[in-house]
Amino acid sequence: MTAPNFIALKNDLTPFSLKELKGKVVVISVMPSIDTPVCELQTIRFNREASEHGGINVVTISVDLPFALGKFCANKGIDSAVTISDHKDLDFGMKYGFVLEELRLLSRGIIVIDKDGVVKHVEYVQEVGNHPDYDKAIEIAKKLV
Asked: Where do the Thioredoxin domain residues begin and end (predicted)?
């Protein structure tokens, strides 16, 4: 399946489009809120993976406000992964099936997209308090680089 394009907000409130990463291997790390321990660890882990594996572009998305994501990144040294907010329209969440409608949050998961824009791996974590399979997603992404 071709990865649907979506629009979300960068930390500086400018629009982010998946099209910006056309031709690149992308790991989308999906989480409910940066203010939870699992989400914090997930963001830190994928930032580290992005810095260690230069050909992998990590996009972390939640419905947190862009200001909160920016503050978190500044405080935790998140500089390799891009953090974006889906709070405005839930465009990503609706197109990829991650919306927890009763809470207006995104569930936890991972998507890996190859250089041709094809989705190669999707993980929907059943319990939002559980970690995704980081190693599996990174291994798949490394093979695509």
From this structure: 1-143
